[in-house]
């Protein structure tokens, strides 16, 4: 429900060169909202088109107010449209003034990554780290179970692509398997979630420093970053304020990619990864110990046990 009692609403704004947080007054109209967004993004108010929700829908306040339509914490996506000829549809340059950030779209070489520091946002080691990390990066309200269900339904809806050879098990068996709370996610799941949410997901491997970019080549405009230590995923975020992270960046933003890679390099130097060719895991079901991923996979296929832990 929209927040009606608040005088001030805090909104998140995602735009071509990054993401910011703004405060708006609940009684504002559409023009006032656009002008506030213009001051943050550097995009002229007359060129702003707003979308909200998933799948994104065009936001039009009409004669309503911000407080009647929006809720505290809502995420707005900014698209640029051709500037209208009417002068009133565009704000004067002075209205943007010095408030326009350095990552204004007119500065093609700029990047919001220069405004903060990339950090590792750790998630619990509970066999759902991939799903929790993706949720942070994509700023989702989806539960882990709902993300698993999205994957299962996607696989079930395309048995020709997701066949026995591709999945390593039957399509039906995979659907049951991926919805189990102890099942780990990996490349297949990242690929499906990337396509479903139309956002590239770049997983940087700490040991090899290789970046696997899921969704690449599908003309997605934004990319999020994950850190992978061999058996665990964490989210990567650009911290630009104590309580504000940016997790999505234009796919063309090389500065963001290099900054994310630096976090992986630092972890690599500290040997903060698990060598999967030598690591040991214990089966959480029967207590048996295994060395290397081949022994673990063989045990899982033979017994159906899926809960493995270090030790």
From TrEMBL:
Keywords: Cytoplasm, Hydrolase, Metal-binding, Protease, Thiol protease, Ubl conjugation pathway, Zinc, Zinc-finger. GO terms for molecular function: cysteine-type deubiquitinase activity. Residues 83-96 have a biased composition (Basic and acidic residues). It is found in: Cytoplasm. Residues 118-239 form the OTU domain. Residues 83-112 are annotated as: Disordered. This is Ubiquitin thioesterase OTU. It is an enzyme of class 3 (hydrolase). SUPFAM superfamilies: Cysteine proteinases (SSF54001). Pfam families: OTU1_UBXL, zf-C2H2_OTU1_C. Its main location: cytoplasm. GO terms for cellular component: cytosol; nucleus. Coiled coil: none annotated. Hydrolase that can remove conjugated ubiquitin from proteins and may therefore play an important regulatory role at the level of protein turnover by preventing degradation. Its EC number is 3.4.19.12. It catalyses: Thiol-dependent hydrolysis of ester, thioester, amide, peptide and isopeptide bonds formed by the C-terminal Gly of ubiquitin (a 76-residue protein attached to proteins as an intracellular targeting signal). GO terms for biological process: endoplasmic reticulum unfolded protein response; ERAD pathway; protein deubiquitination. Residues 100-112 have a biased composition (Polar residues).
């Amino acid at each position: 429900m929209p927040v009606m009692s608040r005088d001030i609403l805090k909104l998140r704004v995602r735009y071509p060169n990054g993401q910011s947080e703004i405060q708006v007054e609940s009684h504002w109209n559409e023009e006032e909202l656009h002008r506030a967004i213009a001051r943050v993004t550097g995009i002229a108010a007359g060129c702003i088109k707003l979308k909200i929700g998933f799948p994104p829908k065009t936001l039009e306040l009409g004669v309503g107010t911000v407080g009647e339509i929006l809720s505290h914490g809502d995420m707005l996506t900014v698209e640029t449209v051709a500037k209208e000829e009417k002068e009133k549809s565009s704000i004067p340059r002075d209205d943007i003034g010095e408030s326009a950030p350095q990552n204004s779209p007119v500065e093609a070489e700029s990047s919001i990554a220069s405004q903060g520091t990339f950090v590792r946002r750790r998630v619990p080691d509970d066999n759902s780290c991939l799903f929790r990390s993706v949720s942070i990066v994509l700023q989702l309200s989806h539960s882990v179970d709902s993300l698993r269900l999205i994957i299962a339904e996607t696989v079930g809806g395309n048995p020709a692509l997701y066949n026995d050879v591709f999945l390593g098990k039957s399509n039906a068996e995979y659907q049951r398997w991926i919805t189990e709370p102890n099942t780990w996610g990996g490349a297949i799941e990242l690929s499906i979630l990337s396509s479903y949410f139309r956002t590239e997901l770049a997983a940087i491997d700490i040991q090899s420093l290789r970046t696997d970019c899921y969704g690449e080549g599908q003309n997605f405009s934004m990319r999020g970053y994950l850190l992978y230590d061999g058996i665990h995923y964490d989210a990567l975020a650009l911290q630009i304020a104590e309580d504000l992270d940016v997790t999505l960046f234009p796919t063309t933003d090389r500065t963001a990619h290099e900054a994310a890679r630096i976090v992986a390099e630092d972890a690599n130097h500290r040997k903060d990864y698990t060598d999967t060719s030598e690591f040991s895991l214990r089966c959480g079901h029967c207590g048996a110990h295994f060395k290397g991923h081949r022994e673990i996979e063989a045990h899982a296929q033979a017994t159906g046990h899926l809960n493995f832990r270090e030790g």
